[in-house]
Design a protein that fits this description.
AB_hydrolase_fold, dipeptidyl-peptidase activity, Jelly Rolls, Cocaine esterase, 19-stranded mixed beta sheet, Xaa-Pro-like_dom, 33 strands, 8-stranded antiparallel beta sheet, hydrolase, 665 residues
Length: 665
């Protein structure tokens, strides 16, 4: 039976140190007399005007099933008091525990609390679960990580991600830098905003300073001790999301009840995600909460531990409205239903047997190799984020193909490449892609992995490469489920660059590959009958408000034939919207320029500009930001400039100029 609900649009909850955090809540009307379990989402992304669309779609419907849904802004964000110093700090995690304790004692809560979240909220759900607050009974973590160094927007395979700077700038404009709402905070809003801005750190600095996997990244990485998590975990992600590996590592390593789900989706909740098909997230999540927060025996434990969407072969597109495929279920992970095929690299061919006499091969990729790789994490920006046709990137790589397949091959799991390499320079990196080559030669990227070869022993130390030494390294690609059809070829592509996904090594190295000692392990499923159909969600994604200007995106490559420089230009206009529930208009625009010379890794340069207008009649605020990063052999150089405006007047301005030594990348 569905409940009538009531909304608390804005209120403050107290922390033990006197700080007040802003929250929004939905719950059954009679919850104060008949308490219900509560579900917390704890984020920096502004409950009043940031996550407003997804909150207003998902939380009222969940509340109608008999839950109190509480959306709380982190300290120093939105209308909450205090200051924010970094991601996932000890203070944030303590605040989260204090919020859980507060919720559990409210008259509308029966004492049982779950945590839910996507991205940041998925991260801290896991992190807080590992601290074992007694009120927390279960979590749903989506598009999250168990290892902050290995699997976030900062580093991948020990390589510096361009998203490190990208995310620092986007987060400042989207959440960190915005003003508290005058209508909710009162006349003190500007003083609170200015004090917050003055104390706000340049987050790109610590993220770039900590280039090795040390205590900074180990903090709040639950992979350090999976056994610390004592509550049931439901992990969700999508094949277009950067964080999909976490679903599999949690299933493999947790000893508590754990369930996994991976759809065709980008970095979004499954009911508002793309590509289609969407899933009825509320229906699926309520079954989880009913079992672990209400104690209803609904057969959840008897169902498969993992369900994923096996994607059919497609021609590469930078956007997909729909990905054809089918749902597959596994009893556990690793699964007894998957096998492994070993391919050896033989004179640019993948074959089942090694050739000890295979000649050595060399590759020194243009630094522009990777321009067709799309964005790291599809779904954070706007359009054209998926990988394009890979033929141009393949041209700058060593490629190894199977013969045309005589039957369909359903990849399911993590492809791992073992490579025997030698570098002629002291620093180098390698990127490995697995692609679906169509009969006409077009190439669709299935998955990718990268490795900083100076981290070949581990990501905690940086060792210069010896040109006379052969190194045997493993490159683990992102998990995947993809069916390569009969008549197509499977391709492995190996390059020494993958711009702009990763920042280049200091040297323009040539790698020599020994094919006789190199191979790849390809996991596959022999059968793929559909065994699971998630609840379908076919409602349009809409919100209570009005679009005053539609969003628009541009993504283009410029080649300056005079200088040789190649620039990837991205322009994202997020449109202008009016939201009725907060009576606020928001208008955000960004442009980004990522420039490099094909022959010079030290020419790499990234530049971002943001503009934001937000407010209503009688109260208008704005932000502008400019971030720039370049490097030489020994240092990175970051400059940033922030401006805050009230109406047309600049009321705050701050500049940063940072020089950071290259100690790990």
């Amino acid at each position: 039976m569905m409940n009538d609900i009531v909304e608390i649009h804005h209120a403050m909850l107290p922390l033990p140190d006197g700080t007040q955090l802003a929250y929004r809540a939905w719950m059954p009307k009679d919850a104060s007399s008949e308490p219900v379990p509560a579900i917390l989402e704890f984020l920096p992304y502004r409950k009043n005007d940031g996550t407003i669309v997804r909150d207003e779609i998902t939380m009222p419907e969940t509340a109608a099933h008999g839950y109190a849904c509480i959306r709380v802004d982190l300290r120093g964000c939105g209308e909450s008091d205090g200051h924010m110093s970094d991601e996932y700090t000890a203070q944030e995690l303590q605040d989260g525990q204090d919020v859980l304790a507060w919720i559990a004692t409210q008259p509308w809560c029966d004492g049982n609390v779950g945590m839910v979240g996507i991205s940041w909220g998925g991260f801290n759900s896991l992190q807080i679960a590992a601290l074992n607050p007694p009120e927390l009974k279960a979590i749903i973590t989506q598009c999250s990580t168990d290892d902050r160094y290995r699997d976030d927007v900062h580093y991948m395979g020990g390589c510096l991600l361009n998203d490190n700077l990208d995310w620092a700038s986007f987060f400042w404009a989207y959440a960190q830098g915005r003003a508290p709402d005058k209508a909710l905070v009162g006349e003190n809003w500007k003083d609170q905003w200015l004090e917050r801005l003055e104390r706000m750190p340049l987050l790109a600095k610590p993220w770039l300073t900590e280039q090795l996997r040390n205590e900074y990244w180990q903090h709040a990485s639950v992979c350090e001790d999976y056994s610390a998590i004592k509550v049931p975990v439901y992990a969700m992600s999508g094949w277009a999301d950067n964080y999909r590996d976490t679903v599999f590592s949690l299933l493999k390593n947790l000893s508590v009840p754990c369930r996994g789900l991976v759809g065709p989706w980008a970095h979004k909740y499954p009911n508002i995600a793309y590509p289609n098909p969407k899933m009825d997230y509320v229906k699926e999540s309520v079954r989880w909460w009913d079992r672990w927060l209400k104690g209803i025996e609904n057969g959840l434990e008897d169902e498969p531990a993992l369900s994923y969407y096996l994607q059919d072969s497609v021609r590469a597109q930078t956007d997909y409205a729909h990905r054809p495929g089918q749902w597959i279920s596994e009893p556990c992970w690793p699964s007894p239903n998957t096998c492994s095929q070993r391919y050896f690299l033989n004179e640019k061919q993948l074959s089942a047997t090694a050739n000890p006499a295979a000649p050595l091969l060399s590759v020194s990729s243009p630094q522009t190799t990777g321009l067709n790789g799309g964005r790291l994490c599809v779904g954070i920006r706007q359009d054209m984020e998926q990988p394009a046709d890979q033929r141009a990137d393949d041209a700058g790589s060593l490629t190894f193909d199977t013969l045309p397949l005589t039957e369909d091959l359903a990849l399911a799991g993590q492809v791992v490449a073992t490579l025997s390499l030698r570098s002629d320079k002291p620093t180098a990196q390698v990127a490995v892609r697995v692609c679906d080559v169509h009969p006409d030669g077009s190439s669709t990227r299935i998955s990718v992995g990268v490795l900083n070869l100076n981290h070949s022993d581990n990501h905690a130390t940086f060792t210069q490469l010896d040109p006379d030494t052969w190194y045997s390294v493993e490159v683990a690609l992102k998990h995947v489920a993809y069916k390569v059809p009969q008549g197509h070829r499977l391709r492995i592509s190996i390059s020494t660059a993958y711009w702009p996904l990763i920042w280049p090594s200091a040297d323009h190295a040539t790698l020599t590959l020994n094919p006789a000692k190199s191979m790849i392990e390809v996991p596959y499923r022999e059968t793929w009958e559909t065994e699971f159909e998630p609840p379908v969600y076919d409602k349009p994604v809409s919100y209570d408000g009005e679009s005053l200007r539609a969003y628009d995106s541009q993504r283009m490559v410029h080649h300056d034939y005079k200088t040789g420089l190649v620039c990837l230009e991205t322009r994202d206009d997020f449109g202008r919207q009016h939201f009725n529930s907060c009576q606020t208009e928001i208008d955000m625009r960004m442009k980004q320029f990522q420039t490099i010379h094909p022959d010079d890794p030290l020419s790499a340069e990234s530049e971002l500009f943001y503009e934001l207008d937000m407010g209503r009649d009688g109260w208008w605020t704005g932000l502008t930001a400019h971030y720039h990063m370049h490097c030489d052999y020994d240092y990175f150089y970051i400059t940033a400039r922030w401006q805050a405006l009230e109406g047309e007047q600049v009321i705050f301005e701050k500049e940063f100029k940072e020089t950071i030594e290259r100690t790990g990348v």
